[in-house]
Design goal:
The protein has 15 helices and 22 strands. The protein has about 500 residues and is an alpha/beta fold. It has two domains: about 270 residues, Aldehyde Dehydrogenase, Chain A, domain 1; about 190 residues, 3-Layer(aba) Sandwich (Aldehyde Dehydrogenase, Chain A, domain 2). It is globular, with a radius of gyration of 23 Å.
């Protein structure tokens, strides 16, 4: 029986243009957008250039300065975002299909999670509209000291391809609620849902020009946006290498502040006091196979006590045989394709290099048959690795888990440390003291204990340490990052 949410990708009407000044804008050149499920080109999307980026930023700056958005009663900004969230809910099926047709996100997940999560995120940030009003500073009695938060003006945002709608909204919502305008570059591989989100923003009452979308390649559009002098701040999610390029461009053309959520090689420490190996195995399996491992916080390094290692690995290997690939538009699909042939080749290359230096594939990486030229890779489990193994050192962004064992807490924490990344970590134990010692010791922006992955608690910020980034998405911190602070000292009398 066909799932009721299954859809025909050939019937989806996808917006091909940019979104500037409240309307779709088409430019001359185009890029082909293929579905990773079957390799078929599903649409052509306009490709922007530096001149179009300048137009979008200039338009955003004008809208921010003249629309009254930054100077209106803050609660009005909150009301617009709440209406926007209601429209996202009302267009759930449409947005879910736009998200699934050319991305790695199965329709059952975009319908149940991505779109509702986006709507709830808009509502969360709407509540901050009138909650961040600055502060009065302690000064001597004949002076009044104040710290006033003000918007930057235009925020330049670059969103990733793995969760296009969700992570795009994480950047747009806090920037807008703080009174800024936004120009966002979506990934050229997943460009459609963010344009529809912008259109719904206009319906909700967002002034035209306040939220502009420029499509195109990162080396052109992303570079121009990062260097634009009218962008007061930049926010980027993606690889560490590209994050360095964004930060360099911002410094050379500014300098200006940046928020960067970058790569990760997140460890999962499993102690021998866990109550259920089966439960923990299922949790770890989801942590490195969700979205086929194409998640920045993917729990890709298992660090397990020797007493439970054999049993845990055996269960993980058995789970690798349970995945069933399918088209992202099939309502029964739960296992994602890899976004591109280039990405699949890169994953295979790291595994091959790891095997060449002594790793053992207890669950080999295989191409899974599906349909057409789909890019599906089986979950892979590697044992016999060390800190120097490529699969341990390098971000893979695919369904690959490495396994290392330990005898005591100190060894576990030593193995968990990574010379570059510090995005997230997981600790699995029934000992509260042991968990808290790990929380204190792990150099990671997020630590999960006896779970792995975010909840719907938007108040908890996310972001990494070291090579995993600067600043935070989500939480109060995300709104505050979109405000610059002015100090005022006022004397009474002449």
């Amino acid at each position: 029986m066909t799932s009721p949410i299954t859809f025909d990708p050939s019937l989806i009407d996808m917006p091909r243009g940019h979104f500037i000044g409240g309307r779709l804008v088409e430019s001359g050149d185009t890029l082909s957008v293929a579905s990773p499920s079957d390799g078929q080109v599903r649409a052509e999307v306009c490709a922007g250039d530096a001149a179009l980026v300048d137009r979008a930023v200039q338009d955003a700056a004008h809208a921010q300065a003249t629309s009254g958005w930054a100077t209106c009663a803050p609660r009005e900004r909150g009301r617009v975002l709440r209406r926007w969230a209601d429209l996202v809910d009302a267009h759930r099926d449409e947005l879910a299909r736009l998200e699934s047709v050319c991305s790695t996100r199965p329709i059952r997940e975009t319908t149940a999670w991505d779109v509702p999560f986006t709507a709830e995120g808009l509502r969360f940030f709407a509540e901050y509209a009138d909650k961040l009003g600055g502060e009065v500073a302690a000064t001597q009695s004949d002076l009044l000291g104040m710290v006033i938060g003000e918007p930057y003006g235009v925020i330049g945002a670059i969103a990733p391809w793995n969760f296009p709608l969700v992570m795009g909204s994480w950047k747009v919502a806090p920037a807008l609620v703080a009174g800024n305008a936004v120009v966002i570059k979506s990934s050229e591989m997943t460009p459609f849902s963010i344009v529809r989100l912008a259109q719904l923003g206009i319906e909700a009452g967002l002034p035209a020009g306040l939220f502009n979308v420029v499509q195109g390649e990162g080396g052109v559009v992303g570079e121009a946006l990062s260097r634009h002098p009218l962008c007061g701040k930049l926010t980027f999610t993606g690889s560490t290498r590209t994050g360095v390029a964004v930060m360099t461009a911002a410094a050379e053309s500014g300098p200006k502040p940046v928020t960067l959520e970058l790569g990760g090689k997140s460890p999962q420490i499993v102690h021998d006091d866990i109550r259920s190996v089966e439960t923990v195995a299922a949790r770890i399996f989801r942590a490195f196979t969700g979205n086929a491992g194409q998640v920045c916080v993917s729990g890709s390094r298992l660090i397990v006590h020797r007493k439970v290692a054999d049993d845990l690995v055996e269960r993980l290997v058995s789970l690798t045989g349970t995945v069933a690939p399918g088209m992202t538009w099939d309502g029964d699909t739960a296992y994602s394709p890899v976004i591109s042939a280039r990405q699949a080749d890169g994953i295979e290359a790291i595994v091959t290099r790891s095997l060449a230096v002594g790793a053992t594939a207890v669950a080999p990486l295989r191409r899974l048959a599906c349909a057409g030229d789909g890019r599906f890779l089986s979950p892979c489990v590697l044992t016999g690795v060390s800190e120097q193994t490529p699969a341990v050192r390098e971000e893979i962004f695919g369904p690959v888990l490495t396994v290392q064992t330990f005898e005591d807490e100190d060894e576990a924490l030593s193995l968990a440390a990574h010379p570059v990344y510090g995005l997230a970590a997981g600790v699995h134990t029934s000992d509260l003291g042991r968990a808290m010692r790990a929380v204190r010791s792990l150099k990671a922006g997020t630590v999960w204990v006896n779970r792995y992955g975010r909840s719907s608690d938007f108040v908890i910020p996310t972001g990494g340490f070291g090579g995993s980034g600067i600043g935070k998405d989500l939480g109060r911190q995300a709104v505050e990052a979109n405000l610059r602070h002015k100090s005022v000292l006022m004397a009474f009398g002449e």
